[in-house]
Recover the amino acids of this structure.
């Protein structure tokens, strides 16, 4: 059993990608590094265990990335998705420092694979880890152990003692008792608060009960809450989160990738009242999937139904739960608990509005509606060939945007604008500095890896100086 | 067909895998899975037999138990393979032998050895058996040539026929045609995959044996067993040619081809089987099926004891112990070949057929993929 009474140089709170990168980096300079993971060993790794790829800057293609992704293109992408809600110096630092991620990760045990089937849009910009995020996390824990990082699982930090902008000790619940763990510097890498339903209720009321949390249930945001209470400066909109449409039958937590649904562009989506509420064919699904969680979160009962017909089956990735199928729309509606007449009326109105065109899923085709509100701009074909199918949808929360403000040394900035001397932050808990809105696939891990390394390096430097 | 509950459970897990696909770089199973949206019973059996049990997908799985999705592909595939071997064998009544693989292997070995000893001691008498034999025909003075060759030939041909029946039944369940089975290109690629144990490389770093860390140890040990076995087969073949073509009668000198090949093969087998048994003993039980594990252990022990007694026979062949050792060795050889069609040896035939099917599918999928 680990001795928590010794004085550590660097304490890392959180055992996901960012925390591991921080711990491995800190261990190079600091002799005593402790990583505390609040989950039991089997569920270690936070949301990183559900990831699969990382975005990074590279000037030319290689065995695993099909072409170059330059600093300027990367920055343009980021500026576009955030609508400017980013801190440019930190964003550019992240992009610049991502240039060696392929080598650095490989030397820390991560193996690559060719882009997964159905991810062509990421083949140039992102690298895929062999076996996905849990395999990456396993490799990192292995490397951390070999480097001599001490790791405690099921070790939850209950209280951070901060005074005069400095960390003193952490009260940790571990192995049935409470310990005060002392360290010269602390790296907070404990994620957002998306799994904390009572916290989400503060902004969303009862609707929060209907949210599905795609990642770990251990992201309670306790460290975030305590640091904000003790004078850290917040960043990001507390009400906002990244959410996608997931199957309503998904588990409440930890459903990960398999519960997402790609069927939306190939049919229509109606709410509980059988009414459409957004253009299902606005753009390619990889560019639009991330808005649907938020859209559904604002519908009555936080539920929606993706409906299509036999023609569309097989046009999208298979998902984990079978479609609800029926020979008639009325029967389908009854199975879903919707008003059959209302569903029929909505489908009829949609079918009447569809203009003839040439269906082509690979481009923004000319199959669109006319005179329909909201319109369906592409891939609109009549829903008329049985069997009809439907998937119930709910908002699946990926992460929250509220976080801790940091500087370019990953130091946590206090409300007086001065950096805390020995408190550093990395990963989702500070991603809001760089990604204040929107999403770029694989970019959360980029921020976590780059800032994990910076935080680890700076915390160790502070500890040994 | 395998039990409906097992097929249903395998299907449940693969539907999750097919929506995730993170593991597609590990082996042939996941790309083959992705070529399908739904899985027939034949598909499931095929995929199970295409699995080389490297376990990389288990340790990489975000849905492994205790996650409520409880995905444990190596375990469910091992269960399905065990049922495949059992259900496609002939005659059906002997399929029960698979169910208690460990017991069957042990009992058959014991019976074979005891019967061989009784016969030899009964027919030759203890005095002859315990007399050191020298020179040409020494072995045959203990066990006559025909008594050695005819049962061995019979047992081997029978085993081969039974396993071919199983392979053909398996092939049919994947809706493969007879012509496809003779596809030379696919056969050649399957042979390369099999002889290199390509899918025991996992994604490049090997299998997760005995536990979560990647290692090439299992593939290397398996190579020792397989190529050791081939060397011993070669030794026997060369010896047969010596005997029939040249009229040179065993035992052969230490530096003759049969003895050299046989000895190297035997040593490889002893090291390989002991190593694999050690790995099995140390390995994580969670991604394992008990029935398959018993089958594995029985087969490895049988191979191990056979090669060990073969080496011992070489060591004592000039002494009074030769007769006893020869009889024990021949008893174990008989048991090994008798249990072959009803034990783990069957994996050779089913995996080979699965590799051929995979090779045919890969070729069919390649031009389509390039066109997108």
């Amino acid at each position: 059993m680990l001795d928590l009474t010794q004085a550590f140089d660097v304490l890392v709170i959180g055992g996901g990608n960012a925390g591991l990168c921080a711990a491995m980096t800190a261990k190079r300079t600091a002799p005593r590094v402790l990583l505390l993971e609040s989950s039991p060993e089997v569920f270690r790794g936070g949301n990183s265990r559900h990831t699969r790829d990382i975005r990074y800057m590279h000037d030319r293609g290689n065995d695993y990335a099909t072409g170059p992704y330059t600093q300027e293109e990367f920055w343009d992408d980021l500026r576009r998705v955030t609508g400017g809600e980013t801190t440019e110096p930190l964003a550019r630092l992240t992009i610049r420092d991502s240039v060696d991620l392929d080598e650095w990760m490989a030397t820390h045990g991560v193996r690559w694979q060719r882009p997964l089937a159905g991810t062509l849009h990421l083949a140039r910009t992102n690298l895929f880890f062999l076996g996905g995020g849990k395999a990456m996390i396993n490799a990192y824990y292995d490397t951390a152990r070999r480097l001599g990082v001490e790791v405690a699982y099921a070790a939850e930090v209950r209280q951070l003692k901060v005074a005069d902008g400095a960390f003193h000790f952490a009260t940790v619940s571990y192995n049935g008792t409470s310990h005060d763990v002392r360290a010269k510097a602390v790296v907070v890498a404990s994620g957002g608060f998306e799994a904390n339903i009572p916290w989400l209720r503060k902004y969303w009321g009862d609707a929060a009960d209907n949210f599905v949390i795609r990642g770990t249930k251990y992201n309670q945001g306790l460290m975030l809450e305590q640091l904000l209470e003790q004078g850290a400066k917040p960043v990001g909109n507390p009400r906002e989160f990244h959410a996608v449409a997931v199957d309503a039958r998904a588990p409440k937590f930890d459903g990960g990738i398999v519960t997402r649904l790609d069927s939306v562009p190939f049919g229509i989506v109606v709410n509980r009242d059988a009414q459409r509420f957004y253009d299902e064919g606005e753009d390619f699904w990889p560019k639009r999937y991330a808005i649907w969680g938020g859209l559904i979160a604002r519908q009555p009962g936080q539920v929606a139904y993706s409906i299509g017909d036999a023609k569309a089956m097989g046009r999208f990735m298979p998902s984990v739960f079978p479609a609800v199928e029926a020979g008639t729309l009325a029967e389908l509606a009854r199975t879903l608990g919707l008003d059959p007449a209302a569903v029929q009326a909505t489908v009829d109105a949609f079918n009447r509005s569809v203009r003839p065109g040439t269906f082509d899923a690979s481009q923004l085709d000319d199959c669109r509606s006319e005179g329909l509100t909201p319109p369906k701009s592409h891939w609109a074909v009549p829903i008329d060939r049985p069997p009809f199918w439907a998937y119930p949808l709910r908002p699946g929360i990926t992460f929250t945007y509220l976080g801790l403000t940091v500087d370019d040394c990953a130091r946590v900035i206090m409300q007086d604008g001065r950096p805390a001397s020995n408190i550093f932050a990395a990963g989702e808990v500070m991603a809001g500095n760089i990604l204040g809105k929107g999403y770029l696939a694989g970019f959360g891990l980029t921020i976590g890896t780059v800032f994990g390394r910076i935080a680890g390096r700076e915390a160790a430097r502070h500890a040994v100086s | 067909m395998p039990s409906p509950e097992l097929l249903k459970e395998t299907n449940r897990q693969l539907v999750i895998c097919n929506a995730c696909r993170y593991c597609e770089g590990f082996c042939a199973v996941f790309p083959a899975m992705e070529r399908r949206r739904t899985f027939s019973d034949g598909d499931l059996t095929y995929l199970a037999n295409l699995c080389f049990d490297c376990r990389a997908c288990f340790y990489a799985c975000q849905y492994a138990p205790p996650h409520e999705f409880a995905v444990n592909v190596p375990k469910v595939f091992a269960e399905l393979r065990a049922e495949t071997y059992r259900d496609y064998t002939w005659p059906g009544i002997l399929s029960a032998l698979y169910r208690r693989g460990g017991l069957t292997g042990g009992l058959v070995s014991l019976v074979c050895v005891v019967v061989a000893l009784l016969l030899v001691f009964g027919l030759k008498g203890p005095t002859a058996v315990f007399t050191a034999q020298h020179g040409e025909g020494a072995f045959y003075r203990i066990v006559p040539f025909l008594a050695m060759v005819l049962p061995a030939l019979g047992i081997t041909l029978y085993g081969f026929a039974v396993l071919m029946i199983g392979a053909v039944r398996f092939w049919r369940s994947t809706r493969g045609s007879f012509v496809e089975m003779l596809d030379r290109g696919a056969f050649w690629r399957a042979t390369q995959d099999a002889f290199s144990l390509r899918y025991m490389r996992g994604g490049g770093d090997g299998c997760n044996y005995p536990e979560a860390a990647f290692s090439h140890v299992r593939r290397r040990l398996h190579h020792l067993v397989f190529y050791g076995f081939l060397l011993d087969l070669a030794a026997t073949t060369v010896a047969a040619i010596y005997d029939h073509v040249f009229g040179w009668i065993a035992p052969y000198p230490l530096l003759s081809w049969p003895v050299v090949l046989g000895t190297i093969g035997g040593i490889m087998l002893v090291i390989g089987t002991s190593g694999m048994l050690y790995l099995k003993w140390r390995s994580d039980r969670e991604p394992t099926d008990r029935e398959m594990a018993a089958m594995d252990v029985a087969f490895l022990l049988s191979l191990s004891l056979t090669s060990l007694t073969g080496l011992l026979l070489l060591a004592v062949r000039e002494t009074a112990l030769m007769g006893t050792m020869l009889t024990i060795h021949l008893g174990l050889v008989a048991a090994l070949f008798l249990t072959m069609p009803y034990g783990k040896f069957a994996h050779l035939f089913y995996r080979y057929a699965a590799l051929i099917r995979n090779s045919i599918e890969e070729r069919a999928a390649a031009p389509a993929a390039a066109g997108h």
Notes: The first helix of chain B runs from residue 4 to 20. Chain B has a mean pLDDT of 92.
